[in-house]
């Protein structure tokens, strides 16, 4: 069977998250985004564990509420500020891991994403001891990421490097970025939302499509490990330019710089602010290949833009959270079942019967690959621009649909 999976989110017990990130809200919103299985996130937190345990238990590591299945995950920050994503097979595994790291953390009961005074190798060793999967979260982001503080997997994970089975690309990178680095060719790439709110523009803005026997932790683990015929068949995510850190830019005024310009200015903007190195430039530093070389098993990468963002631009709204945007998003999802279906597969003529012409034209422009993206940087997301009439007539590569990948 084919499932869509988002393996990195946070609960309302993590810092800077929405109070709406409850298990009930996630269970309700995931199907509207087209997602079958969602990470719990924050599973080390005692109060969040109590919410998770309200769900029906399918097996030791899989839980069900409504139409949505959950698997146990958390993110932790090590002593070098590197973030690691962990997936657990059961609550007993979670409890065992928590017992081992509690003495190294001062906020394990107060923050869903705890800080621990251990390095990546030590955390990976504990993960291995409890049979949990572990890999770098948003690996290229210039804050709190592996490649922000290390130049290689082994620098981060030491003797446990071979135990690392996956790498989360993050919003500012895709497979073409990752596969310019040879040491990553053996790893499964994951594309996850890292959602801090359940809003349509956040939850499942990136997700993975997997071929599994059933929608359970064990089968998802086998897909990540590429065992027993299971696999990740598609990575779905933002174009890298939409990420907050794609290009090098000032974190104060968001002025963009080339790498040479930033170096000459000693990473100080003309406004006096700090220039933060972008993912594109960091990959260029790390890459040992001039162009990406994808291993045979690497799935295609499908770029999507959140539907709420497309609607907001079509309606001339400055925010994706306005009542007008929410109304149009809701009427489309109610009519076609999920955001993924609307963006990629639903008949455009049928869409035109449900929404206003401006939104229909915007979705059509996205499908035709005519949406213009202005890169993000310095902590500000990239922005999109809809084509003018002349640009609408320009022939470009058509946006692929999920059905194009059914045979992968």
- Quickly count the helices: 16
Tell me roughly what share of residues is in helical segments. Answer: 25-40%
Cα Rg: 21 Å
The CATH homology group name of the largest domain: Metal-dependent hydrolases
User: What is the overall pLDDT average?
Assistant: 95
Bulk shape: globular
Q: Name the beta content range.
A: 15-25%
Q: What is the CATH top level name of the largest domain? A: Alpha Beta
Main beta sheet: 10 strands, mixed
How many strand units? 16
Low-confidence stretches: none
Give the domain tally.
2
What does this structure look like?
The protein is 30% helix and 16% strand. With 408 residues, the protein is α/β, with parallel strands linked by helices. It folds into 2 domains: 2-241, Metal-dependent hydrolases (TIM Barrel), CATH 3.20.20; 306-405, no CATH class. Strand 1 (2-6), helix 1 (23-33) and strand 2 (37-39) form a beta-alpha-beta unit. Helix 11 crosses helix 12 (323-336) and helix 11 packs across helix 15. The chain is globular and about 60 Å long. The two termini are 12 Å apart.
List the helices and strands and how they pair.
Blueprint: E1 2-6, H1 23-33, E2 37-39, H2 46-52, E3 56-59, E4 62-65, E5 68-77, E6 83-88, H3 91-101, H4 120-129, E7 133-136, H5 146-149, H6 153-157, E8 166-168, H7 175-178, E9 188-190, E10 207-211, H8 217-225, E11 231-237, E12 249-250, H9 259-264, E13 275-276, H10 279-286, E14 301-303, H11 307-315, H12 323-336, H13 339-344, H14 348-352, H15 357-367, E15 372-374, E16 383-385, H16 389-392
Parallel strand pairs: 1-2, 2-5, 8-9, 11-14
Antiparallel strand pairs: 1-10, 3-4, 4-5, 5-6, 6-7, 10-11, 12-13, 15-16
């Amino acid at each position: 069977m084919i499932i869509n999976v988002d393996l990195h989110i946070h609960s309302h017990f993590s810092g800077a998250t929405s109070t709406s990130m409850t298990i009930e809200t996630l269970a309700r919103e995931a199907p509207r985004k087209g997602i079958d299985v969602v990470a719990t996130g924050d599973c080390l937190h005692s109060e969040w564990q109590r919410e998770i345990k309200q769900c029906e238990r399918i097996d030791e590591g899989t839980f069900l509420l409504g139409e949505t299945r959950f698997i146990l995950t958390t993110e932790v920050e090590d002593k070098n500020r590197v973030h690691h994503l962990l997936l657990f097979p059961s609550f007993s595994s979670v409890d065992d891991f928590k017992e081992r790291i509690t003495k190294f953390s001062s906020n394990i009961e107060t923050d869903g994403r705890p800080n621990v005074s251990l390095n990546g190798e030590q955390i990976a060793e504990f993960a291995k001891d409890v049979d949990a999967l572990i890999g770098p979260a948003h690996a290229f982001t210039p804050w709190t990421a592996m490649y922000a503080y290390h130049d290689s997997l082994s620098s981060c994970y030491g003797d446990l490097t071979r135990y690392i089975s996956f790498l989360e690309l993050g919003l500012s990178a895709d497979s073409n970025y990752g596969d310019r680095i040879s040491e990553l060719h053996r790893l499964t790439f994951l594309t996850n939302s890292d959602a801090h709110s359940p809003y349509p523009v956040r939850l499942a803005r990136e997700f993975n499509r997997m071929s599994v026997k059933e929608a359970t932790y064990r089968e998802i683990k086998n897909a990540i490990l590429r065992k027993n015929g299971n696999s990740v068949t598609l990575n779905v995510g933002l174009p890298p330019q939409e990420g907050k850190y794609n290009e090098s830019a000032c974190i104060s005024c968001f002025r963009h710089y080339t790498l040479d310009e930033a170096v000459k200015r000693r990473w100080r903007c003309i406004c006096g602010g700090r220039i933060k190195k972008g993912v594109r430039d960091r990959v260029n530093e790390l890459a040992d290949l001039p162009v990406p070389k994808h291993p045979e098993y690497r799935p295609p990468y499908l770029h999507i833009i959140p539907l709420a963002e497309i609607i907001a631009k079509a309606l001339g709204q400055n925010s994706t959270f306005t009542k007008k945007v929410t109304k149009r998003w809701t009427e489309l999802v109610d009519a076609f079942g999920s955001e993924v279906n609307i963006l990629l597969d639903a008949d455009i003529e049928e869409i035109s019967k449900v929404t206003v012409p401006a939104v229909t034209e915007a979705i059509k422009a996205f499908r035709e690959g005519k949406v213009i993206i202005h890169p993000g940087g310095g902590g500000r997301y990239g922005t999109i621009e809809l084509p003018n009439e002349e640009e609408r007539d320009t022939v470009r590569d058509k946006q692929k649909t999920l059905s194009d990948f059914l045979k992968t």
